[in-house]
């Protein structure tokens, strides 16, 4: 019996963190086993509260795309088999954008980051929001333990 989501892509959220690089590596391995593609998605937005020197949105998008391409290049370096990888930079709130990008996927892969507990308690985390709102299975890749 052929599984319904056998050829659907694996969507993975990618930023410039070590945890996200680990999630991308996991998604590439899983896609190789499933013989499907990986959709590496980075999310960007214009945040006037942190962008003290106004940066045009087109420039922010371009920087996000360049970081994504660099991260993907490093992730596939030295691999014998690499599944097809589609890179996408999308604008919006991270969790919402990732959940939307994964609507037709086999699964969504996200990383969990270490962070301030208060910030997470007040705002929630991207990974937790993806787990709550995604209509596809979500794999949460944990960061390396501190000192590892």
How would you summarize this macromolecular structure in one to three sentences?
By secondary structure, the chain is α/β, with parallel strands linked by helices. Helices cover 41% and strands 18% of the residues.
How far is the first residue's CA from the last residue's CA? 42 Å
One letter per element, helices H and strands E, the order comes to EHEHEHEHHE
Question: Which residue ranges are poorly predicted, with pLDDT under 50 across at least 5 consecutive positions?
Answer: none
Shape assignment: globular
Helix content: 40-55%
User: If classified by CATH, what would the architecture be?
Assistant: 3-Layer(aba) Sandwich
Adjacency order of strands in the biggest sheet: 3-2-1-4-5
What percentage of amino acids are in beta strands?
A: 15-25%
Question: What's the main sheet like?
Answer: 5 strands, parallel
- Backbone CA Rg: 16 Å
Q: Assign the structural class, choosing from mainly alpha, mainly beta, alpha/beta, alpha+beta, or little secondary structure.
A: alpha/beta
- CATH topology type: Rossmann fold
Query: CATH superfamily, please?
Result: HUPs
Total of DSSP H or I helical runs spanning 4+ residues = 5
Query: Averaged pLDDT, please?
Result: 87
Number of strands: 5
How many structural domains can be distinguished in the coordinates? 1
What is the class in the CATH system? Alpha Beta
Characterise this structure.
There is one protein chain. This protein has a single domain, classed as 3-Layer(aba) Sandwich (Rossmann fold), CATH 3.40.50.620. It is 41% helix and 18% strand. The chain has helices at residues 18-34, 57-76, 94-101, 117-123, 126-133; strands at 10-13, 38-44, 85-91, 107-111, 138-141. It has a five-stranded parallel sheet with strand order 3-2-1-4-5, with helices on both faces. Helix 3 packs across helix 5. It is globular, with a radius of gyration of 16 Å. The mean pLDDT is 87.
């Amino acid at each position: 019996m052929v599984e319904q989501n056998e050829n659907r892509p694996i969507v993975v959220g990618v930023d410039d963190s070590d945890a996200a690089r680990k999630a991308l590596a996991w998604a590439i391995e899983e896609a190789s086993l499933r013989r499907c593609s990986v959709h590496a998605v980075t999310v960007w937005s214009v945040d006037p509260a942190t962008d003290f020197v106004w940066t045009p949105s087109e420039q922010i998008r371009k920087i996000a795309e360049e970081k994504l391409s660099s991260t993907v290049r490093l992730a596939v370096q030295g691999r014998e088999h690499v599944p097809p990888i589609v890179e996408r930079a999308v604008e919006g709130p991270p969790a919402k954008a990732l959940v939307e990008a994964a609507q037709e996927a086999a699964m969504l892969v996200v990383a969990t980051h270490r962070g301030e507990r208060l910030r997470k308690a007040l705002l929630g985390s991207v990974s937790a929001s993806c787990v709550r709102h995604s209509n596809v299975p979500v794999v949460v890749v944990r960061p390396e333990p501190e000192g590892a």
